């Protein structure tokens, strides 16, 4: 259920939504024109690939900038247009991967299930979509969810949790915690429950784990994070240094979600949260994203807390690149790494007594072999 369909959420009229859609098209045209003057063919790879990456970066940046400039009722109306387009355009790309998608609900929270049609699930992956706590939907993530269902051999449930500013913190945490309770009560395949998320969904995963500890809910068996928003204080150098390289706007909005809540509360800031009880954790992020430095600090805190983890920083990549660039070899390598990681977790005892799986360095850069070969996995350094 996209936010525009929820009771009580204000949505702009159809004529205004149509005008905003035309405006978005104009923003995209402007983005393409700007890209042409920024030497998009130059970079670490071949000209065609460099142009594709540069164009994606500029289009996504324009999408975010344009939508967040709208009043909230127009934002919701345009979001629904994009969700409707996703429901038409994306299902064939899900089916071709041997994955079946269906709308459903768990504990009264709407969402989507993604299940492989080629194998029985070895666990359940609860996926928290990104969008800065204010936007997107499981439908828009359909292709990415299909990738994860295939490579992890898990059934994936993506809850359509409540979003800000209509439902600020802790509404999303409450929704996801209710889903976790229901899944555990109903039983999950092989008694394995994993939690994953990207961007704001990655930060939300941390809030959910904090809530699990405080409320006595069983912790998941592993956590998978893609470019997580580990802190909303936004005070690290990479926020400024990578502003021209990332897809995120330089003025990342946080107030709609926090709504006066302290950004330094451990419930929303993983750089001050107690991580000692965290399960094995996988982290992937780009070297060109604004959240790079906070994520590096988070990985260091995992290491200091003795949490089994894998960390992969990928050079020349921006925020949530596995989602935005599914065709890139770096993204395909991340999918493989996630599948291997969860397979390894599934073969161990519950994380409360598990020996460390892999403790890579705080910043484990994925080194890229020459030319078009796949990026290698993170490797220890002295």
Layout of helices and strands, plus pairs?
Layout: H1 14-36, H2 47-68, H3 72-89, H4 91-95, E1 99-106, E2 109-116, E3 124-128, H5 142-152, E4 155-159, H6 171-186, E5 193-198, H7 200-215, E6 222-226, H8 237-241, H9 255-258, E7 281-286, H10 292-304, E8 309-314, H11 321-324, H12 329-346, E9 365-366
Parallel strand pairs: 3-4, 3-5, 5-6, 6-7, 7-8, 8-9
Antiparallel strand pairs: 1-2, 2-4
Helix pairs in contact: 1-2, 1-3, 5-12, 6-7
List keywords for this structure.
382 residues; alpha/beta; 12 helices; 9 strands
Write a concise synopsis of the structure shown.
The chain is an alpha/beta fold and 382 residues long. It is built from twelve helices and nine strands. Strands 1-2-4-3-5-6-7-8-9 form a nine-stranded mixed beta sheet, sandwiched between helices.
Mean pLDDT, all residues: 90
Low-confidence stretches: 351-382
Helix content: 40-55%
- Total beta strands: 9
Largest sheet: 9 strands, mixed
Q: Summarize the helix and strand pattern as letters.
A: HHHHEEEHEHEHEHHEHEHHE
Structural class by secondary-structure content: alpha/beta
Describe this structure in words.
- 41% of the residues lie in helices and 13% in strands.
- The protein is built from 12 helices and 9 strands.
- The chain has a 9-stranded mixed β-sheet, with helices on both faces.
- α1 (14-36) packs antiparallel against α2 (47-68), α5 crosses α12 and α6 crosses α7.
- The radius of gyration is 20 Å and the shape is globular.
């Amino acid at each position: 259920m996209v936010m525009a369909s929820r009771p009580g959420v204000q949505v702009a009229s159809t004529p205004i939504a149509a005008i905003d859609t035309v405006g978005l098209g104009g923003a995209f045209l402007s983005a393409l024109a700007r890209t042409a003057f920024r030497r998009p063919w130059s970079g670490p790879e071949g000209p065609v690939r460099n142009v594709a990456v540069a164009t994606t970066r500029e289009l996504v940046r324009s999408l975010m900038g344009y939508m967040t400039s709208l009043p909230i009722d127009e934002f919701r109306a345009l979001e629904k247009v994009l969700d409707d387009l996703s429901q038409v355009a994306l299902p064939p790309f899900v089916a071709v991967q041997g994955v079946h998608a269906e709308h459903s609900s768990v504990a009264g929270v709407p969402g989507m299930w993604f299940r492989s049609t080629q194998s029985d699930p070895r666990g359940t992956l609860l996926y928290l979509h990104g969008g800065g706590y204010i936007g997107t939907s499981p439908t828009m993530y359909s292709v990415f969810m299909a990738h994860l269902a295939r490579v992890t051999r898990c059934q994936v449930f993506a809850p359509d949790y409540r979003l800000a500013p209509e439902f600020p913190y802790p509404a999303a945490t409450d929704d996801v915690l209710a889903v976790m309770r229901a899944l555990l009560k109903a039983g999950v395949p092989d008694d394995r429950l994993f939690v994953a998320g990207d961007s704001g969904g990655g930060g939300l995963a941390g809030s959910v784990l904090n809530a699990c500890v405080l409320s006595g809910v069983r912790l998941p068996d592993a956590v998978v994070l893609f470019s997580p928003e580990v802190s909303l204080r936004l005070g690290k150098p990479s926020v400024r240094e990578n502003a021209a390289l990332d897809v995120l706007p330089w003025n990342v909005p946080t107030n709609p979600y926090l709504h006066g809540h302290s950004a330094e509360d451990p419930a929303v800031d993983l750089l001050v949260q107690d991580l000692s009880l965290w399960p094995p954790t996988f982290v992937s992020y780009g070297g060109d994203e604004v959240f790079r430095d906070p994520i590096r600090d988070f990985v260091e805190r995992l290491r200091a807390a003795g949490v089994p983890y894998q960390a992969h920083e990928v050079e020349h990549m921006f925020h949530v690149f596995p989602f935005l660039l599914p065709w890139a070899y770096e993204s395909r390598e991340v999918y493989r790494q996630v599948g291997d990681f969860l397979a390894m977790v599934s073969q161990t005892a519950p994380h409360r007594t598990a020996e460390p799986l892999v403790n890579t360095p705080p910043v484990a850069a994925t080194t890229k072999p020459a030319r078009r070969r796949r990026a290698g996995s993170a490797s220890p350094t002295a």
